Amino acid sequence: MAAWAAAKNLPGKFTGSTGLNVLSSNELQPQDPRFNAWVKKMLDTALTIERNHRNDMFKNARPSVGGVGMRLMQKMGWRPGEGLGPDGMGSIEPLVLDVKNDRRGLVAQEDLGSKTVPVPKASGDSVAPKHPVSMVMELCTKRKWPTPTFISHESGPPNVREFKCTAIVNGVEYTSNVVSRSKKDAKSLACQIVLQSLGLLPRDPLLPVVI
């Protein structure tokens, strides 16, 4: 152990730490003299002193003497040093104000503004995102096709009915292979297959596509 300690002993070399923050040459003498380290330090110190002085000015200010409020209270029988209220049990010391130096929390919902997402314009026969049944009806009207026909298929026990729907659009049948629990959902799936088959909706791998 003594030999190891002697080996680590380096005369004239300090191996500890003084905690000193050594500034770089750019911090000591930058190209712009406004950014000198000592200038920034002085500005920070001046701002801190001014902020503390402002807080002390409000928090340690002398109470106001006189004024309309005090004259009215004295007419009603109040005397300086007495508590407020009809029984004189109220507060004697004036209210202490808390000075806010920043603007954190001072925001209204209206200031945030509404985040609007731009909706891409539909090109050609593409339809804006709506309910699939409404989209099919509008598509048939736009292309001057006959009104689509929907045929519902029911199966299963009375307490657990299963529904499938076939949509006939422009003479083409589109049938869903997915079982639904209501006629409304089955009709919506059939219309979704129509739109996918016509390339108006992204492909869903769970639904068939009629070409």
Summarize the structure.
The protein has 211 residues and is α+β, with helices and mostly antiparallel strands. It contains seven helices and three strands, in the order H-H-H-H-H-H-E-E-E-H.
What does this structure look like?
- The longest helix has 23 residues, at about 35-60.
- Helices cover about 35% and strands about 10% of the residues.
- The mean pLDDT is about 75.
- It is flat, with a radius of gyration of 40 Å.
- Among the domains are: about 25-85, no CATH class; about 130-195, Double Stranded RNA Binding Domain.
- The chain is built from 7 helices and 3 strands; from the N terminus they run H-H-H-H-H-H-E-E-E-H.
- By secondary structure, it is of the alpha+beta class.
- The chain has a 3-stranded antiparallel beta sheet, with helices on one face.
- It has helices spanning about 1-10, 25-30, 35-60, 70-75, 110, 130-140, 185-195; strands spanning about 150-155, 160-170, 170-175.
- InterPro entries: dsRBD_dom, G_patch_dom, SON.
- One of its GO terms (biological process) is regulation of cell cycle.
- This is G-patch domain protein.
List keywords for this structure.
Double Stranded RNA Binding Domain, 211 residues, alpha+beta, single chain, three-stranded antiparallel β-sheet, 3 strands
What is the fold's blueprint, element by element?
Blueprint: H1 2-8, H2 25-28, H3 37-59, H4 68-75, H5 109-112, H6 132-142, E1 149-155, E2 162-169, E3 172-175, H7 183-197
Antiparallel strand pairs: 1-2, 2-3
Helix pairs in contact: 6-7
How helix-rich are the residues, as a percent range? 25-40%
Spell the H/E element sequence.
HHHHHHEEEH
The neighbouring-strand order within the major sheet is 1-2-3
The CATH architecture term of the domain at 132-197 is 2-Layer Sandwich
> How far is the N terminus from the C terminus?
87 Å
- As residue ranges, the low-confidence spans are none
Morphology call: flat
Record field, number of beta strands: 3
